[in-house]
Specification:
Blueprint: H1 22-49, H2 55-84, H3 86-109, H4 132-164, H5 172-205, H6 207-227, H7 241-254, H8 296-299, H9 315-341, H10 344-352, H11 371-396, H12 405-435, H13 447-471, H14 477-506, H15 524-549, H16 570-575, H17 577-592, H18 596-602
Helix pairs in contact: 1-2, 1-4, 1-5, 1-6, 2-3, 2-4, 2-14, 3-4, 3-6, 4-14, 5-6, 5-11, 9-12, 9-13, 9-14, 9-15, 11-13, 12-13, 12-15, 13-14
């Protein structure tokens, strides 16, 4: 059967893509993470020691920076999927991130770019505050890096999957699932090195070296990405994709007075020839009115195309918008998981008060404790992928699939609650030792909360990305990853809001704030208990949303694009199209009162045109 292939010639040419592109793509992401995460891990110390900001203000700035870095990917996903394509977005993002790191490096090199040096931790010391221009230069570097993240984060994972995705391969699903896990693990390794080696350089060699090395690594990342550019499969952008969503909403509103049919015998749905989506689903039925044919003579051209896309849309367009709307409740549950995972600034302040010596001459940098989260994530991915999936498959009847996406997400939500509860209990012990007994707690007590945070991310974050990737069409995969980043962004904002409220409410009336600069004077444990309570509320909310969503389909209807049908159906669609619909007419004319125009439309040889392009969604079990 003749197939419509929008992304050819790259897709057709076997010389493009494949495993040989992985070193360039994964190396690009690895070096980018080595550079960027190394900056985030210890940045609270830079803001405290060099810009003389208090803990609450510094943590709020970092949370807002994180929010911006997670909001820009949704814009990057839109530009990638509808205008520029993934390759160009990654290229632009890489260059912009490099510029941001260079500007940050300059803030450490130029003495006048920050306040005069002062030991802010020394009792009675009065340190000058940063001026407006100094903060503007610092924030400008953050903005550049956030804009760069908007180009890299939503596209890198999907771009790598593009190189390996071959739907005709019977092992395609398993290959892609392993790619997701090992891609995330390789990034985890780079982050683990970053929060140890880069943080150590910042502590021992100063900020000039500590920021200069990440800038150099980002330069290497840029070079590696461009050197493999001739080998990449480049999925074309679809300029009509997001405008199609507005068409569906407008058409559904315009047709809001139509009465939806109550049975499956109605065949007046508008779809294109070869489409497997011939009728809309029953969920979000109000949108189905966008694809109901009222008067074929006035709404459809002789070629079978809609005359006015603002009044009539295809079933496929309707279902793709539904795919987004359906996941939003479950997506919203990941926001508070992000809140729990973004408490590292306060964890770092905790770590500064502990005994961190491994030997007489070596002390663990407080910014390196996040390595325990990354190590946990990496080990769990390896164990789950190689050992637990085969074991779980025998119990869940999900061949080589293990736990479903929603099961992993739910476990991650629960573990995030346990992580903040553990942090509260450990802080209660640490504070009691310091205030009552004057003792310093061992750093080992902090390891469980970091490990639990990493485990929550391993379950929830990876589960979310795979869930969105499986539920959306392929030309929306950058949007799928960007949606996860958007949730992280809202998580950063909500975390900043909760921190601000806790700081101001607890500090009223001359009281010491819960999140004071000196944790022995504050009550970080109270703050963590509040997060735990809110996390439990979120867990209940997730269970409700998961139940309401229903079962994830093993294979979405758009796994085959327009004109790509399963064997056995092609003959009917190519040779028996008219006869099939003429038969439908005879059976249903009396029941539904089809007009002559309806009959004429039913036998139209609708041209094989897909406004969304050739779509092959990755196929995963839910």
């Amino acid at each position: 059967m003749k197939k419509s292939m929008e992304i050819s010639p790259e897709k057709v040419k076997s010389k493009k893509g494949g495993l040989r592109t992985m070193p360039f793509i994964i190396s690009n992401e690895t070096f980018e993470k080595l550079a960027s995460i190394g900056l985030h891990a210890n940045m609270i110390n830079y803001l405290r020691n060099e810009y003389h900001l208090d803990v609450a203000t510094g943590a709020t700035i970092l949370l807002l920076w994180g929010a911006m870095s997670n909001f820009t990917p949704i814009i990057g996903a839109f530009l990638s999927d509808s205008h520029l394509g993934r390759f160009r977005m990654i290229a632009l993002g890489t260059i912009t991130t490099l510029l941001g790191m260079i500007v940050l490096w300059l803030t450490a090199i130029i003495p006048t770019a920050r306040p005069a040096h002062c030991d802010i931790g020394k009792p009675g010391q009065s340190c000058s505050k940063a001026t407006g221009p100094q903060l503007v230069l610092l924030l400008y570097s953050f903005i550049l890096m956030s804009v760069g993240a908007g180009g890299i984060r939503p596209c890198s994972l999907a771009f790598g999957a593009d190189q390996l995705d071959k739907p005709e391969n019977p092992n395609n699903k398993r290959i892609l699932q392993s790619f997701f896990n090992w891609y995330y693990a390789s990034v985890g390794i780079s982050v683990m090195v970053s929060v140890t080696a880069i943080v150590y350089l910042q502590e021992k060699c100063g900020w000039i070296v500590g920021f200069g090395v990440p800038a150099g690594l980002m330069l290497v990342s840029t070079f590696l990405f461009f050197i493999g550019s001739s080998l990449y499969v480049r999925v074309g952008a679809n300029k009509n994709m997001f405008s199609g969503f507005t068409h569906v909403i407008a058409a559904a509103w315009k047709n809001r007075h139509l009465v939806l049919p109550q049975d499956d015998k109605f065949h007046g749905w508008y779809h294109l020839k070869g489409s497997k989506l011939v009728r809309p689903t029953d969920k979000l039925r109000f949108l189905n009115k966008a694809c109901m044919i009222r008067n074929p003579d006035k709404e459809i051209t002789p070629d079978g195309l809609a005359i006015n896309p603002w009044s009539l849309c295809t079933v496929k367009q309707v279902e793709e918008l539904k795919a987004i709307l359906k996941v939003l409740p479950i997506w919203s549950t990941g926001i508070f998981v992000a809140v729990a995972m973004n408490q590292h600034a306060l964890y770092l302040i905790q770590a500064k008060t502990t005994e961190r010596h491994l030997t007489t001459h070596f002390e663990i940098p407080e910014g390196s404790f996040v390595v325990f989260s990354i190590l946990t994530l990496f080990l769990w991915v390896a164990i789950y992928d190689r050992a637990l999936i085969p074991l779980l498959s025998s119990f869940t009847e999900r061949h080589r699939q293990g736990l479903s996406f929603k099961q992993r997400m739910g476990i991650g939500v629960a573990i995030s609650c346990i992580a903040t509860a553990t942090a509260a209990a450990v802080e209660l012990k640490r504070r009691r030792l310091g205030v009552v007994y004057g003792e310093t707690m061992s750093w080992v007590w902090l390891v469980p909360q970091y490990c639990l945070t990493g485990l929550a991310e391993a379950f929830n974050a990876i589960g979310q990305i795979e869930f969105y990737y499986s539920q959306f069409p392929k030309n929306m995969t950058s949007f799928a990853v960007g949606l996860f980043a958007l949730g992280m962004g809202f998580g950063n904002l909500i975390a900043a809001l909760i921190l601000r409220i806790a700081n101001e409410a607890s500090g009223k009336g001359g009281n010491v704030s819960w999140v004071a600069n000196d944790p022995n004077k504050g009550h970080y444990d109270y703050y963590f208990w509040v997060l735990t309570f809110l996390g439990l509320v979120n867990l209940v909310y997730f269970l409700v949303c998961s139940w309401a969503y229903g079962r994830c389909e093993e294979k979405n209807i758009w796994d085959f694009g327009e004109g790509e049908e399963e064997e056995g159906q092609c003959l009917e669609l190519e040779l028996g199209f008219d006869q099939k619909f003429n038969k439908v007419e005879e059976e249903e004319e009396e029941d539904h009162g089809l007009t002559e125009s309806n009959k004429e439309y039913s036998s139209l040889n609708v041209s094989n045109v897909d406004p969304f392009g050739q779509i092959d969604t990755l196929k995963h079990n839910g």
